[in-house]
Fold this protein.
Amino acid sequence: MINAIILTGISLLMLVPYLNILAGSFSGGQAILQGKVSVFPVNFTLDHYLAVLNNKAIWKSFGVTIWVTAAGTFLSLFFTSLMGYGLSKSHLKGRSFMMIMIIVTMIFPAPLIPTYLVVKSFGLLDSLSALIIPGLISAFNLVIMITFFKGIPEGLTDAATIDGCDEFNTFGRIILPLSLPSLTTIGLFYAVGYWNGYMSAIMYLRDPGLFTLQVKLRQLLVENDSGSMGSGMLMSIEGIRMATIIVATVPILFIYPLIQKHFIQGAMIGSVKG
């Protein structure tokens, strides 16, 4: 009971800033400027959201972010699961060396300038591929997949081989269906990473038409890029910023309740098997 009370209190404290932003997004401009908004809206209004949702640049960056998140998550899951399945086989030649190299990348991540030069040398600058390919496989997620695959009884794959399945059929028809909890967990990690991706877009993109939602949000927060948002007595730049933050955050939050069951199961699998 004590643990529950403490953790509940900490969770509520973590929610306070978010509730403040949510309340501000629904509050009138004068109330925000006068500091009257806490965790409840003051002078309730939807003008800030209407201004954000009527902005074509926001919708375009929203679409770009959705595309990058969907395509990046799918490709990352595909290649991570393939690589994880291969490295889970103890008889694979060179497995130990590859595992060491993977762990090295976790301890010593690639520096910024060499990464930029590699992306530039492959001609990926100013393209959405630059937001996906450099981070296609996460070493941390790969280790989780390897751990999960090693826990699958070899008798299943041996039985499939006896029935005439090759490695790809075994992987697609037997291994992947059994891996749904682990794939769901890792897929959520990848999706959140792509959705919140900011540094890659700043480094590799120059075309404003390719800017992601996070970059557009930064323009609103830092550069006061609200000229196309419109104006009104009940609106303020701060209110528009808060509404934009909510619009950029809520979609990814709705994913978790849909996959909560598989996420918890996958997280437990990755934590108890070593």
Observations:
- The chain has a mean pLDDT of 83.
